[in-house]
Amino acid sequence: MKRLVISTVIAISFANALFLPKAKSHTKSGALELEKVSGLASRISVPKSNILQNRLKVPALQPMAPENIVVKMHRRRSVDGVTGLQPGGGLIKPETAAKSVSTVSRDFIQKQSPAQNPLQLVELLPGVVVGSADPFGLTGGTISIRGLDQSEMAMTWEGAPATDIGIYTIDTSEFASNEDLEDVSVQQGSPNSDTPTINGSGGLLSFRDRDPSRKMGGLVALGYGSFNYHREFARFDTGEIGHSGIRTYVSYANQRDNAWRGPGHDSIWNLDWKAVKEWGADNRISFVGAYRHSIENTWPSMTMADWKTYGRGFTWGRRYNFGPEGENYWRLNRNPYDNMLLSAPSHFTLTNHWSVHFTPYFWHGEGNNSAGAFINNTNGNFLGNEPLTQVLTLPYAQPASNGTENAMTLMAYQNVQYRGGFTAKTNYRFGKHHDIYLGWWFDYSNDHDSAVLSPVNYNGMPLDIFGTKGNIKLSDGHLLAYQNISTITTVNALFAGDHATFLKGKLVMDAGIKLAMINRNGTNELPGPQYKVVLNDFQPLPALSMRYKFNKRHQIFANVSTSFRSPSTPTLYDAYYGHDISYQGVENPKNEYSISEEIGYRYNGPVIVANATYFHYNFANRQIQSAVTGTNGGVTVDLNAGGQTSNGVSVELGTRPIHHFRPYLSGQYLHATIDNNISGLPTAGMTAVRSPRWTGALGVDWDNGTFFWNYNIRYVSHQYSTLMNDEYIPAYYDMNATIGGRIPSSGLLKKSTIQVNFINLTNNHYLSGIQTVTTNANTTHGVSGSAPDYLVAPGIAVIATLKAGF
Asked: Do 199 and 205 touch, CB atoms closer than 8 A?
């Protein structure tokens, strides 16, 4: 680009020297102006002159408007896709949807630790509260948006649903590597009519991978840090294959780290790939996949009393002892899981007025959440509600003083799920104003949940951490199981609407409706009063929204939406603790249903990008997920918390580069109250759980293209963990920082990047999230109390990463 500028200057200077002596009156018209634009572009303005006409005696032409040659120089992307231009350091972008939406893009993502999961990447956005259990984002965590938890949140990856359809768990670390993420969006209100979800009353979290590069190349990244963390990543882009229009990439990541507190370690590897075919006028087919194998740490359920007594020292046992105390040995409390996701989002333009979108997908997941179980071969064993009279054959058993035998086993709360379906949508434009759409979402899943016993050797080592081999059986060959349920869920959802534009595109209005039909058909294989479980659900969901754009800088939006959450699968089934029913399945449970309204304003200026939103919710049959007693968190069900009303205001603001600085600011005020009494307790008027009154975040990014650093801090006020508001986690703050630089290209390697991430910079000790909710922690009004469980925030960690392109 610089060569073009220099060549143009030389050419014009030569012309002036040749012709100007005989055309002095035209000296001004032959001037060259060089203007620097925003530090990122250069402009050369060359008005057309009649100097040559005079020299060659050509008749003068009529005056014409000046012609400008504009040459712009943009900062090149770094090897990991960072541009240094995205507002707020990549934490905000101009939005046009008629709903509250916040997006985190590559300028922020690629400067964070590659180990962090997408939940941790969005924790600075307005209304988002993330509770982390470890600095590497592997061992799960919690997220709530405007006080609504992850089980009420839709999540899509490349257009495909990415939550467990049975219990709505979100484990985003199971999907794409951070190096492959393009952006992550949070829609704080309700999902869209075409979103494939049956649990979206709490908003939508969606993320997509980068597209393959048009040129052959790749990226290699190596990381090392605290707690013996190391990570290796490699990606290869094919570029366009011949002239086929097809380009692909495949990447591999391997990571291992020690538990940040107590014994244990994490071990994962994952394989990602994406292929894209583009042709003609806006036709595109992509095929995206991710496979992940992981064996992760878990943490013991911590009550407030445990936290006050032990603090961070409350963890699993480092040494194995044969006996009931051996159940706390760390090797018996792990989370192994394998999963594969496939998606093929496609778009076809059939005519100037007609287009079709089609996204088929498939998901297979298999793994467990394990715990130790010390059992006897004759006493205290049950199958459902039936006591066992037969003598069990227990591998690695040791004789007891009463003549029986004891053995340590691995209790594996297993989940095996196959899920597939598609979303099909067609758009047709009528005239100048109306874009009509019609669609169908179909989803079929086969979900099997069980709790079985697997042998443990004399050293406390499980023979199979996945709990699928050598499981303990009865004399008739049946498995000794403490849970054994199978559920087939079929979803059919039809949606239609009109996207209308008026006033030359300034006014946009959307009206739509979704008709969701759900069938759960399941069996409980344990002996007892329950065998067949059936749930049929039908939910109409209308929505209306509008956006008015005054000019390119100012716009307002408003919407009224309805959404719902279908009851989770375990809520339908009896659960046993010993021979007693610790939880009785609910017949025909009610849906959570919400009506939400938003009014917002957006500003997209040359320096500042900002928005502010007022929101209001009314809930009926609010569903709150909690753990069943005696399952070590392995079985969760829904508590019906009745009605709820929520009001609040959220704001966010970011700037484009100002002397290489890009600050970001977000905040939210939330007032959420329970509308009625629950379980005989006076809960009406109490503050809703997981609903902090104030949240806020500040981020600062500085990047001059060679060196960069960023810093962020977030604040979350106290959150109640019981419906009676008799226990809460205190307010907390958290700081993170990054410093790094880019190394010039050398040989085959393109410009490289080295960065150091600091997580929980001040090593603040605090509880980061509410893991399980109860009605009351203390006995009151004749109702016995039950202690909620919490997550402990990870301690300080330092992670260094070197990235090099080729």
From this structure: no
